[in-house]
Design a protein that fits this description.
Length: 190
Amino acid sequence: MSLFGTGCFIGGDDFDKGNPNPEGIVCTDAFKVSGSFAPGTPVRDADSPTGCWPVGTWTFTVSIDPTDENVQDITGDKKPDRCGSVAQTSIATFDASYSFRVDRTQDPNGDDWVDSYTLIGSSPSGGHTVWNDKVLYKISVTEGGGLDCEGNLELYSADGKSFWNLHPMQADGQPLQGFGDFVLYKEPKI
């Protein structure tokens, strides 16, 4: 699944007004995600043995998805606009690996669990959280995605023009798998 929809061009009402690319996208790419999940504490309560329990460390790598199925058609010509194939662009880059941790505590009332997320190796800088040469935009984990838990790690390049949207997914006892998107913009988005 693509960030903006599978196999479609960016458009909508602005396309009708002569702008097939109102988001200012230069090119896109798609990734496959694989990795491992190391459970943390607290462990799942024996009374609730199913559903998403994201507590632990999520470590994964990405690779280019060689199919064009999830690469966007930006220009509306019914062809994927893959980075590296679009004039004056390079193949989408990615880091050697990614790792984040989910910690879970009970709220002060004891009614609900509260999750906190840490991108391993990140640090605060100038009002942002930075990791390698990227700015952390968002980390979350929700139930769904065809497996028990679906992670979401969103990163921007320091100049705000490159965006990585990675979705590792896990089911109890299984390796992580998933997908991701890369978008290169003409103008900074953060």
